[in-house]
Design goal:
Shape: elongated
Oligomer: single chain
Largest sheet: 6 strands, mixed
Number of strands: 6
Order of helices and strands: HHHHHHHHHHHEEHEEEEH
Radius of gyration: 20 Å
Structural class: alpha+beta
Strand content: 15-25%
Number of helices: 13
Strand order of the largest sheet: 2-1-6-5-4-3
Helix content: 40-55%
Length: 298
């Protein structure tokens, strides 16, 4: 490829990089794997004759989707051997992501976990159609299905997701207020304050990956959750600090022990109370957070 062609390919790739990363991340739930997919996409992209490509954005999305589908099959084996619950890799996202309600919901921990229940092809179709509004013909080319089959897959995936996603979209301010109350109660060891901000049926999922201590099963119920946090706080002599962050498009919290990042928490809030807490402690999933560089996803 000539220098001119390489420069043109590079400019196009860079222009769409955030989009491609988001497609890969939403399909994989792993920023590290999404970065690997982007590298694979780039290696294939520079070999393409751009003169034969009528829609470069669509072509890049197609390559990224195919590479993500390939990686999903490898990740399935890794997840089967994973110690304890598996949570998506948390991302620090730029504040403007929260302003895009559809994008923020699509990368939320709650929805990412629901996406885990889809087959790889269903997940790809749902992400491309519902999140990025890719037309059926383009999706068909990306997943090697007919447009008619893709429409059926999209309908099935949408019905599956709608039955499991949160009942309503909560405002950023409501989520932030609930997490501020949670943070304040933790910092002051106010157990009643914790109970007040947690919904009775609250669920906590913690991911230590067998490296850091975490509950091996989801913890369900406000009183059990309070005991879980109270017990954890009482077992360390380290100085614990908790700070706000924008995690996966919504308000979240970053926990530090003696100044070092220990974990990242995202939350699901309904009716001003916390119904879900997702706490990632696995250090292998905290590299993007440790960089403290918020990502712009589109």
């Amino acid at each position: 490829m000539s220098d001119h062609a390489t420069n043109a390919a590079t400019e196009t790739f860079v222009a769409h990089r955030n989009l491609l990363f988001t497609v890969a991340y939403e399909m994989l739930g792993s920023a590290a794997d999404a970065e690997d997919v982007l590298q694979e996409t780039w290696m294939r992209w520079v070999k393409v004759d751009l003169g034969q490509v009528s829609d470069q954005r669509a072509y890049l999305v197609r390559i990224t989707t195919r590479q993500s589908l390939n990686r999903l099959r490898t990740m399935k084996r890794r997840k089967e051997a994973y110690v304890g619950p598996w949570l998506p890799e948390p991302l620090l996202t730029a504040p403007d992501v929260a302003e895009n309600v559809e994008l923020a919901e699509s990368v939320s921990m709650a929805l990412m976990l629901v996406l885990e229940t889809l087959s790889p092809t269903e997940r790809a179709v749902f992400v491309l159609r519902e999140v990025f509004d890719v037309d059926y013909d383009e999706i068909a080319a990306a997943v090697d299905k007919s447009p008619a089959a893709v429409r059926q897959i999209a309908h099935r995936a949408r019905r599956h997701i709608d039955a499991r996603r949160p009942r309503s979209v909560v405002s950023v301010s409501e989520t932030r207020a609930a997490l501020e109350s949670f943070q304040r109660a933790l910092e002051t060891r106010d157990l009643q304050g914790l109970l007040d901000v947690l919904a009775p049926e609250v669920v906590v999922i913690s991911d230590g990956g067998g490296i850091k201590q975490a509950a091996l099963r989801p913890i369900i119920g406000a009183e059990k959750v309070v005991r879980f946090w109270a017990g954890g706080l009482g077992k360390t002599d380290a100085t614990i600090t908790v700070g706000p962050a924008v995690v996966n498009g919504s308000p979240g919290l970053v926990f530090r022990l003696d100044g070092e990042i220990d974990g990242v928490m995202a939350a699901r809030v309904e009716d001003a109370r916390i119904t879900g807490l997702y706490y990632v402690r696995n250090p292998e999933k905290l590299n993007h957070v440790a960089s403290e560089t918020p990502l712009t996803l589109r």
